[in-house]
## 1
Amino acid sequence: MHDHRRLGRELGLFDTDPLMGAGLPYWLPDGAVVRHTLEEYVREAERAAGYRHVYSPVLGKRELYELSGHWDHYRDDMYPPMELGGEQMLLRPSLCPHHALIFRSRTRSHRELPLRMAELGGMYRSERSGVLGGLTRVRAIQLNDAHIFCTPDQAAEEAAGALALISRAYADLGIRASRHRLSLPGGGGKYVAGPALWRRATALLREALDASGVAYEAVEGEAAFYGPKIDVQITDPAGRETTLSTVQIDFHQPERFGLCHTGPDGARHRPVMVHRSVIGSVERAVAHLLEEHGGAFPPWLAPVQLVVLPVGEDQEERAHAVVREATALGLRAEVSGPADGSLGARIRRARLVPYQAVLGAREAADGLLAVRLRDGRRPGVLPAAEFLRRVEQRVRARGTALWEPA
């Protein structure tokens, strides 16, 4: 069983410092590579699905969160206000109020809908010290968030499209969903009023789940304060279940913010907000990937994808040339030479690197590489150009497979 906190430190991915504070990890160079690659993957997938990306501030006036409902229903998880120039400012606990303001920044036509707005943005939650742990519960969160502004008739289809995006990402990352949960309101006063809108939103989410062919179970008491949601649950090696991805349908905030678009009839109509997150927070996603794969990330996500191992000093110049060729193809490659120890020790040290290329005197002279894969397979001795091309194709295709037959 793998612990992402131990692995993250052993592999030099992330760490913490008491002077920065609990729940505020920092990313080391290899961890930053994983995070950046994951973020770019999500942005690319979203662009292909018709999303437009925005940036919004991590601060907002208290009035903003009073309008959205966060101040009334979510205040215990927010940081206290800061007094700035006679105004109370807050670190945002969520991105949706900011996106609502961007939507209403100008007149919108029905021809723009569905308008898919995405952001990989920071948000901040005042988690109790006792629940903090590694990357799974942190106080500064980088969230893969998006909000789709659409008509009620489009909402179920957009929610189903979000579920498809999540499913594809899980396949590429080697993540298994343990179950899908339809999270409904429970008792108590933590939910906004409007029984008819709750029923309508729930019906649309059920329609999306049914259209996607996804088995699910309904659970009361797990909804967001403003609407029901689909939670995609994952389970860590210790059997602990948590939510990674979500899809939500929200009639509440469009009404609170007075969001409108001009319909085909020339009248003003209220859109629906579909909230969705493909990989949830980057921190929680990386924590789960570490524990799921034991640090052996899928080839496209690995911080180092190829290590070239010259047998002796005479092959080091050629090894560095191979690394330059790999880098020109967009691969992350490095040389591990004789100064780093015996060949066997270097191979063991690179055990989590997807591709290893041993370079002896014969290989250097003939432009060849003796190829080893992380899983122990040895595809044989290949021309360097062919090997690099095949690795580049495998990385570009993403997914979890290490090698494809020629």
## 2
Amino acid sequence: MSDYGTGREPEELTFAAAPPVRGGAFTRTWWGRAWLQALEDTALDGQQVKAGRRHARAGAVGAVSVRPGRITAVVQDPDGTAYRADVLVRTLTEEEWDRLLDLAVDSAGHIAALLDHEMPPHLVEDATAVGIDLMPGIGDLEPECGCEAWDHCPHTAALCHQMARILDEDPFALLLMRGRGQRPVVDALQVRSAARAGGGTAAGAPAGAGDAPAGVSAAEAYALRDILPPLPEVPVVAQGPGEPPSLDTETDPEPGVEPAALEFLAADTAARAHRLLAELLAGREVAPAGLTVAQDAVRLAAGRPPGWVAGRLASGTGRSRAELDAATRAWRWGGAAALAVLEGSWTPDEEALARAAARLAEAWEEGEAPELSRSGAHWTAAGARAQLRLGEDGRWWPYRRAADGWAPVGPADRDPAAALTAATAEGERDEESPGSHRLSE
């Protein structure tokens, strides 16, 4: 067990014996791996380290006592003979503790983690840079065992392996070995941090500089790449979005609240979140939507909601049902850009007109160009129910005349001839179902 308990920090912590380890890596965190590396660097006989690992895997290490400068446990041999094993570690001096605490307070990342009762691995590297060794180095793990071995034996090596598992769960045990436990360290950091916060702006600093958050230096964040454990595997996206909660309860809703409308919006939000997550995990860049209310209403209507929802969307945006139908057809072909071509208007300047004329001239062989009459950004083919609309991005959109006006019949194309072919193709396109085209968010 490890209990930092109430009241004063204990001088000794006892960790219960751990069960045997069946396969896999013996330790799983940076702290445990670094501790075992220190053991391997310290021991003169690698065979004794391997024997200790076997003892620890078999569950031969009893409860481990951790106190300043020493760890202790009883370790059993396979024949049942028990030995007391101790490993001694040098404690830090008061001056070294002061330097270490000042280092932590100077780093926003370190103090934030420590005050949140987390041990940042990068603290070890920064401490080493100022001459303080938190993790044991060569010769720092001094063994003492009842078997009277003069160097690390299977029993002290097994104790060190068990200590690695303890550090997996509680890296603050390392600080206790070095002389202070978690509570005294955190308390001292809080005192130092409060003293600095109350000290005002440092001399020579610009006014207001003390109000800005300290942040984490780029060098510190970059250095963590070699210390932190690898990131977890990218999660697999679920087959579909989750089901929104049902709001059909026995309690009457507040005036103006429509549960069915909220359920519809919740389902739409879940579907969009699922789609965006799939795009991100596939490595595709997702631009923020940034839609207006009128645009988002068309996006919702393009999802073929129930009739009453479509009616609400139409009236809420000042459109008739026919206008909303035309808007949703445009949205399915090209999202907000297609909607702007349908409902917006712009007058090309001379430069844009010159570029458009050049594109039209290049699109057909000499003598084959259709007769087109222009009105603003619209080019209408003479004698045909076809029209080209030029977008502000230079793309051409195909339109056909329908009973209720001009309607988009395909996606945009840089080639006006291809767009006009789509507009004049034999037979009406299924304007309601351009499902092969990916919709904009």
## 3
Amino acid sequence: MTWPPAAADRHVITTFVKGTNMGPYEAARHIPGVTGHELSPAANRHFSIPTLNKAIADLVNAHARLDISQAWGDGSAVAADGTHMDTYLNNLLSETSVRYGKPGGIAYHHISDTYIALFTHFIPCGVREAVHIIEGLLKNTSELKPTTVRADTQGQSFPVFALAHLLGFDLMPRIRNWKDLTFYRPTKRAEYVHIDALFGEPGRNVIDFDLIESQFRHLMRVAVSVREGAISSTLLLRRLRAGSRKNATYTVFREVGRIIRTVQLLRYLSDAPLRRRVTAATNKAEAFDGFSQWIGFGNGGVITDNDPVEQERTAKFNALLTNAVIFHNALDIAEVVRQLQEEGYIIDPEDLAHISP
């Protein structure tokens, strides 16, 4: 990189500055040859939210083409998880999080099984994370098109299970408090030899297939509208809350969701390798969350801008820089592996699977 830096180099520096949350004028004190006056316009004029999404997708595509990334996954699965980001209290998105006990928002990431983030957006603490789980999958523009979605307990509800299934996604969350969950029978007469107690009293908790049949066309119209972008999945899932019990759309989504969640819970109970895959995927998402927080060290990790658009850009800048570091680490690992192979060492792909970028 030449000094003073050219325009392209200033974009690289800007990505580092914004991704670390340092701010242009603070960074200029530590980086020779640039000023805050140069870095600030570069961030404001050349880094829109669509541009950042495209840059993230380009990095995801480049990472997917590395042979080493195949040791970690094939890109068919993604884990959705949120990490808390501190903000000032008096702005539109900031709330005091019950979960974290401090004000801020949530950077909600969709993390590929290859450790890299496919999509990131900034959401309020008070919003249930489950309503955003589908949106990130639909807005993902990278070459990786995951069909399996992992999440934690906050990433599921009956409508979310239903919509994910209708859109062709296999939602399999890691769920706590199983004793509070209800399994549903296909008919009142259905009984099971060893697991009948999971379904409650005989004849209770029965799926209403007549309701699903009567509302099937409407159900499919809504799903197609979401797929084609005519309806936002986030807006739809916000409205399909438990308080909408008299709403016909909610009741049919709830009924389909009961079927899908019951099947998924039974799969989870009976398939030990599946449980290990779900845990591994959510662990990768949590590792990304911790890594992205470590990278966003500037200003004590606090987002200093109160504008919701700028907060969204900050979360995306941080995800972009985190992806860039992961990509660079993957290149370094691949280079070390190549050197070891040239020296005669045999590298087992299963061993590489235990190395994290």
## 4
Amino acid sequence: MGQPQQPDEAQAGAAAGRPPLGVGMVGYAFMGAAHSQGWRTVGRVFDLPRRPVLAAVCGRDAGAVRAAADRLGWAAAETDWRALISREDVDVVDICTPGDSHAEIAVAALAAGKHVLCEKPLANTVEEAEAMAEAAQAAAKRGQVAMVGFNYRRVPATSLARKMVAEGRLGALRHVRVTYLQDWLVDREFPLTWRLRKETAGSGALGDLGAHIVDLAQYLAGEPVVGVSALTETFVRERPLLSGSSSGLSAAGGSDRGAVTVDDAALFTGRFASGALASFEATRFATGRKNSLRIELNGENGSLAFDLERLNELSYHDGTEPGTHAGFRRILVTEPDHPYLEAWWPPGHGLGYEHTFTHQARDLVHAIADGAQPLPSFADGLQVQRVLAAVEESAEKNSVYTPIAS
């Protein structure tokens, strides 16, 4: 009988036959930390066809990016994204920067032969998103893949909801109502970070939160929004200029002030291709709400509801049951035959926000290995961008109904 394997031997054995997949990430703040968690974890949880390697992370400040590399688990640090995408040990470029740089980095990375993962929203404008989608389409012919980071698709409960809708459990869809509520801007003295400047963020709550709920609504419904009628508002129009750096949703301001050039809240109704009606609300001024995303779908035969603050659950009503005992019931989404959960814990042991990024990495690795285009694609990201643009156009025109450009 042989000797028991030592940990290094066991890891080497597990990696046998699985070629490395070098990942380079641009940006290392809030989303960079979340993506790093996903890349660090995915190969230790799921049985993957390729082995992700955290090759290099990029940021403008040499000292800060080196510290981030050490903290987040990256082997090397770069201060120029062009140098990162030219590295031979980088196969995938993961873009976690503000929206104003998404298009330039993604198009260059695809032209360099890299696979690309880009955080949402895909771009700051429809024109930028169109260029990115065209570059992704051309790259696909060379065997490259490009995916948008709409991570809420990767919650097991929302993936299960999509499956139930696709199976016809709700019947013909009638209504979708979705809200995404936060309160981190309620304090009018919160400083003017990049998220409050149109030139870097593209839009405010609309792009930051609205992009998520538009994508999630279309994903669950299985069809696109074809027109909207919208209101937007900026409640606090001037804020202290940023003093020093910001971290996540925290920052310090100085005495000078500057103009807020994005929306604080967006409220819009919409129509799906099938004729189903939708309502959307995205705000960073819902006092007391931290990260409250809720979606409900009503169909002729039933309803489904999901709440991010109870992300291991679905609420389901089967409208075909007799009224004497029908009603909404909780589905605890922790079974091993639920989406993604075959690799995690025993039933009843819930997952969290960070696991969505692990699932995102898993799906991308499989797509690369299989030579299949992942979802959501850059074309999906472009369609969301067109909805956001229609919302802005409608709001500028006194809420006139605005069809989505195609």
